[in-house]
Specification:
By secondary structure, this protein is α+β, with helices and mostly antiparallel strands. It has one domain. Helices cover about 60% and strands about 15% of the residues. A 3-stranded antiparallel beta sheet has the order 1-2-3. Helix 1 packs parallel to helix 3. It is globular.
Length: about 140
């Protein structure tokens, strides 16, 4: 269970600090990080994020998913290994990072732009990579 907590906390800190750093880029400007990666600030605004009851429901769903994973790891063969627990932590930390954005800003801050894929952030990477690790055999 500690692996879940520490990996979630690490990803949440990485996500929120990188979003704060990306917000220092002046609007309309971007900087190249590597040959194929561009840092470009995008505010992913969705009208539904402005509804307080929807935001509260999203937080309840997040807590429900976290409790479900905890129960499954204790009563069944799921999520027993260290890699699976780290994966769950990354997924929950990423979801918490995006939920924190939605709660505070009513939008999600995306800033990593590959050019051929929509802009994303470290929370999105944590969710996808974490779920892949969590269900790794």
């Amino acid at each position: 269970m500690l692996y879940i907590f520490f990996s979630a906390a690490a990803l949440l800190i990485l996500d929120q600090s990188s979003k704060q750093a990306a917000q220092r880029i002046p609007p309309g400007r971007s900087c190249s990080f590597a040959y194929f990666v561009r840092i470009h600030l995008v505010a992913n605004v969705n009208r539904i994020y402005k509804n307080r009851s929807v935001r509260i429901a999203m937080v309840w769903v997040w807590f429900g998913a976290m409790m479900s994973a905890a129960v499954l790891s204790h009563i069944g063969p799921w999520f027993q290994g260290q890699v699976s627990e780290i994966g769950l932590g990354l997924a929950f930390g990423g979801a918490a990072g995006n939920l924190l954005d939605i709660w505070r800003r009513q939008s999600v801050v995306d800033f990593i732009d590959l050019g051929w894929w929509p802009a994303f952030n470290f929370a999105d990477v944590g969710i996808v990579a974490g779920l892949l690790l969590a269900f790794w055999p």
